[in-house]
Each structure stands twice: as C-alpha cells, then as structure tokens.
Automatic annotation (TrEMBL):
Recorded superkingdom: Bacteria
SUPFAM superfamilies: RmlC-like cupins (SSF51182)
One Pfam family this sequence matches: Cupin_2
Protein name: Cupin domain protein
Ranges for domain Cupin type-2: 70-129
Originating species: Grimontia celer
Family matches, as InterPro entries: Cupin_2, RmlC-like_jellyroll, RmlC_Cupin_sf
Taxonomic placement: Bacteria, Pseudomonadati, Pseudomonadota, Gammaproteobacteria, Vibrionales
C-alpha cells in the first residue's frame, strides 16, 4: 500500500520562470510552486515535490505586493484559496469583465472558458494555494493574445509543445517545432463573460461563513451538494477545530489535507505528524487516519478528495 507523503510550507521550492509572463513587467517577480502532480508549468526548471497522481494537482503561487499573474484559461477546473494576504481576481479577455477581492481563507472555484488573472493587493508577500483538475494538467493553459504579444516583446516564446524558450538566453524553437498558435477568434467569441455578482454567488465561498458552519460538521464546499455546486473531478471540504469528526476516518479515495490555520495532528498506522499552516499532506486511497487540533486558537483546513467525475467544470448558468 502506498504511504502518505507531505510537504512543509518552509520546504517549498519556487520557480520564477514557470510561465510565459516571467519577463513581463508587473509579473516578473512571481513564484510558482508544484506540490503534488506535474502541474502546468511551461518551464523545465519547475520542481515537483510529490510525483503522485491522486486525480488532481496541488500547487501554489507566491507574489510580492502589486505583482500579478497574467490572463489565462484552463481546460480543467482551477480552484484557489488565499493562504496569506489579500488578492484581487479579475477576468475577461482584457481583464475588465469583472473582479472580486479575496481575503485569507476565502476560496474561488474558477470556471473554465474564462480568462482569469490575479494580483496581490496586500502590503506583504502573499500566497495562494491551488487545486487543478486531472492527473495531467500540463498543456492546458491558454494565454490571452495580448499576454503572448507582451511576452514575445520581452524575449519569451511558447512552443507548440507547451515549453518556453528564452531568447535572452539564446534559446530558440527547435527545428520542426512551431510556435503555439494563438486562440482562434471563434474560441474567443465563445468565452464566458459573467459579471461579478454571478461569479461571487456561484463560485466564491468566504472563510468566516465556512467557519460558522463548520461547528456542525465538515462543510462541503465544492461538490455535487456543496456550497459551490460542481463536479470538477474532486470535492473540497472545510474543517475547523469545532467540527465533530469520527475517531477514525478512511480515505476511500485519494485525499489531500491543506492546512489553513492552526496545528493539526494527523495519525495513521501508529504514526503521528503535526502539520502547520501551508503544509500539504497526501493520504493515498485506503489510508485510515485521524485528525486532532493540538493547540488553542483558530484552526482550519481544506480536505480535497478525488471523485470519479471528469476533471472539467460545469458553469452554473448551463444545464449539467
């Protein structure tokens, strides 16, 4: 049987050349982290901490104040929660269709067929944690045309294989490989253009609302019967120190625990480890485990569980 694995927040290894906007002013200081799975990095320099395939990918983005991630779209689900700081998420081909501000602990289940970007608007280095649908999330990033143009003006070219080439380092497309084609106009015309009210209603859950509900038990945040109704290939629950839990839990499918606040003892097979904010724990299918908060004060975590649903996402305005 596979054994649990984990990554400590303080041991995360960043990549600053992960994406096509790595040289673009305003984006050049962002850091990308791939925690579980292959992630979606376009750079061979990206470090992967746990090379497991639990049905989804876990990653993170760290950015100093006023640093932004450029507009892009995914073919599979993309979920973020704010670990540190204050973040503005914006969407649309030019980023002006709508925006929402997320505080620490808030979670955003972003629809597919929607260009999205995000900016740290706090006063300190900020961190958002991510969940991407599917075992293989690579090759699924589509950049807004103006992002591609800006990147090329600053020396970065994206090949059709999804790999970046840095002309500032005398890199060039290999013989026989062409540049990644820009999205066709018909595809751009079919993009979703929801307003902020619609997005917040269907795809954002606030931390303190979840904390209030968690006293009654684990809060189903994302899932068929969740606060954010969806079937993206995984479910997300929210737990607090006040959530009543069985003495022994079983990961009937692969489970990942992502600590938001406090110190949590996770026990399995007579082994106990203490996990802290920003730590990520993978519990393979079949693992029997227990959870306990080890200190006073605020304590919360997100629990991600693989499902058998496709790794896509159903927009709330459409028929399932």
């Amino acid at each position: 049987m596979k054994q649990p694995q984990w990554v400590r927040f303080g041991e995360l290894i960043p990549c600053r050349s992960a994406f096509i906007d790595a040289h673009t002013p305003g984006s050049s200081e962002k850091e990308n982290f791939t925690i579980i799975g292959g992630g979606v990095s376009e750079s061979p320099d990206q470090h992967v901490h746990i090379k497991a395939t639990p049905g989804f990918n876990i990653g993170a983005a760290g950015q100093p104040p006023r640093c932004f991630n450029s507009l892009h779209s995914h073919d599979t689900a993309e979920v973020f929660f704010v670990l540190k700081g204050r973040w503005r998420f914006f969407w649309g081909e030019t980023g002006k269709d709508g925006e929402v501000v997320l505080e620490e602990g808030d979670i955003f289940n972003i629809p597919t067929r929607l260009f999205r970007g995000f900016e740290n608007i706090g006063s300190d280095y900020g961190m958002i944690m991510s969940i991407l649908g599917g075992n293989d999330a690579g090759g699924g990033v589509i950049w807004a045309p103006h992002v591609r143009e800006a990147a090329q003006a600053h020396g970065l070219v994206l090949g059709e294989t999804g790999r970046l080439y840095d002309t500032k380092k005398d890199e060039a497309l290999p013989d026989g490989e062409f540049e990644m084609p820009l999205p066709e106009q018909d595809w751009l015309n079919a993009l979703l253009r929801p307003d902020a009210t619609t997005v917040v209603k269907h795809y954002v859950a606030r931390y303190w609302d979840m904390m209030a509900m968690a006293a009654q038990g684990a809060v189903k945040v994302i899932g068929e019967h969740g606060l954010l109704i969806d079937k993206p290939g995984f479910e997300v629950d929210f737990l607090s120190r006040h959530s009543p839990l069985a003495e022994t839990l079983q990961a009937q499918k692969d489970v990942v625990l992502m600590v938001m606040r406090g110190h949590w003892a996770v026990n399995w097979q007579d082994k106990t480890e203490i996990f802290n904010p920003g730590d990520t724990v993978w519990l393979p299918e079949g693992t029997n485990y227990s959870l306990k908060v080890t200190a006073s004060g605020e304590a919360s975590l997100f629990r991600v569980t693989r499902t058998d649903d496709p790794a896509g996402l159903t927009w709330a305005g459409e028929e399932a």
